[in-house]
Design brief:
432 residues, alpha/beta, FAD/NAD(P)-binding domain, Enolase-like, domain 1, five-stranded antiparallel beta sheet, 11 helices, 23 strands, 25% strand, globular
Length: 432
């Protein structure tokens, strides 16, 4: 006999995003059903993010040892055991998986239904003998890495950002194909973990980010030994008995690379299931964007807001070291708009860390209202995220001057910019 259930929210997809949304909605008092397919959602394995974060943390610690001399300590080349690094990341991911067991989800008030399903009518989703008639549906189906149709690529084994986490061997010479944030993050991590790394930004070099900020990031990464072939395009893969050949097209003519491994990191293709009606929300995009969509959806269903996404205020990140971040509009300024700058060489916190290279830029209109912000350097992600929140709330540079921060803080660059703005404002005449 068919079973009909009527929750407040039905989340379809039990990857990292779907699980996060289900837990968040249940915590706000909503009746939640989570539908999990027969396998992990593509590109959205629940512990994939933790595993990558652990790998990047190990890489950062190795680099900290190499650069300890900048802080008056003895520097040393780390003795890398890549198998141990990979095992540490896998162990953290496995330990984190305990929070997503069916038993814990049930304890949190989330009903888990496993199996393939489909919409059988507007507002009705069927899984086996169960029909779900939810007040609202959320599709969190994950995404899959883009694999370009490069000649002979299918003749060799290659990594994607999803599969490289399973590697337990040190890589001799890794070529990273792609100019996405993901490509740069993984390229730096593997360079710091002892591999020779060449990056070919096939299809564009960090598109959408300000060229000035990108140039500063490229200089810092090259100083670490990362080879970035800005003008190159991979034209073909050349399988060999030992190693792999990479045929390149460059401005000065054909070239080639001899590498041991390939990582294809050219972005992700989100699953785009059919959306039957307005009661269905599709959550997609970069993880922090999709999480923001999920938070707004929960607020709306719980009756605490309109739940509209301010896309112009969403920051974008490249989580390398130094980090690159940007939100809003900082280019193509109009008359009366100003681009302000703060050099991190004058930021006490950055100098204390031995990382006084970097820049924060902020655009404002004539009245000081924030239009956008970008930065590259230590703390750039947090600084731009704070500026993006102020942008979303319609705040201005005068509000930064009233912030109370610790004596040495990376976000003090915003107060520096606010001071520049205040110095240019006409003074009011005081009457005593």
């Amino acid at each position: 006999m068919a079973d009909i259930i009527k929750p407040d929210l039905c989340v379809i997809g039990a990857g990292a995003l779907g699980l996060s949304l289900a837990r968040r909605a249940s915590a706000r008092g909503l009746d939640v059903v989570l539908v999990a397919g027969p396998g992990p959602e593509p590109g959205d394995a629940p512990q994939g993010r933790l595993r990558r974060a652990a790998l990047m943390a190990s890489a950062a610690r190795a680099q900290a040892l190499r650069t300890a001399g900048a802080l008056g300590l003895d520097k040393a080349e780390p003795k890398l055991n890549f198998r141990a690094v990979a095992a540490h990341a896998a162990a953290l991911a496995e330990a984190g998986a305990s929070r997503d067991t069916p038993e814990r989800l049930a304890a949190l008030g989330v009903r888990l239904i496993e199996g393939e399903g489909a919409f059988v009518a507007p507002g009705r989703f069927a899984v086996g003998q169960t029909t779900i008639r939810a007040r609202h549906f959320a599709l969190a189906m994950g995404s899959a890495p883009v694999v370009p149709p490069l000649p002979e690529l299918d003749k060799v084994a290659f990594f994607t950002p999803d599969s490289i986490a399973d590697n337990i061997r040190k890589l001799t010479h890794l070529v990273v194909i792609g100019g996405t944030p993901e490509a740069f993050e993984l390229a730096q991590a593997y360079r710091r973990l002892g591999a020779q790394v060449s990056l070919v930004p096939q299809g564009g070099l960090l598109p959408g980010f300000a060229p000035e900020l990108v140039a500063l990031l490229l200089r810092a990464l090259r100083e670490e030994g990362l080879e970035i072939l800005e003008d190159a395009q991979v034209s073909a893969i050349q399988p060999r008995r030992q190693g792999i050949g990479i045929a390149l097209t460059r401005a000065e003519g054909p070239a080639s690379l001899d590498v041991s491994h390939i990582l294809v990191a050219m972005g992700r293709e989100p699953a785009r299931p059919e959306k039957p009606d307005r009661r269905v929300s599709v959550l997609e995009g970069e993880p922090h964007v999709a999480e923001r969509q999920a938070a707004l959806l929960v607020e709306r269903l719980a009756g605490h807001g309109a739940g509209r996404l301010a896309s112009q205020a969403l920051p974008r990140f490249v989580l390398t070291e130094p980090a690159l971040a940007q939100a809003g509009r900082i280019a193509n300024l109009r008359p009366g708009e100003t681009l302000w700058r703060a050099n991190l060489a004058e930021n006490d916190a950055a100098r204390a860390l031995g990382q006084g290279q970097g820049l924060v830029v902020l655009a404002s209109d004539r009245g000081g209202r924030i239009l956008g912000c970008g930065g590259v350097g230590p703390g750039a992600a947090q600084t731009v995220a704070l500026a993006a929140l102020c942008l979303e709330k319609g705040m201005g540079l005068g509000d930064f001057e009233r912030m109370a921060l610790p004596p040495a803080d990376l976000t003090a660059a915003l107060i520096d910019i606010a001071g520049q703005y205040g110095a240019r404002r006409p003074r009011r005449r005081l009457w005593w």
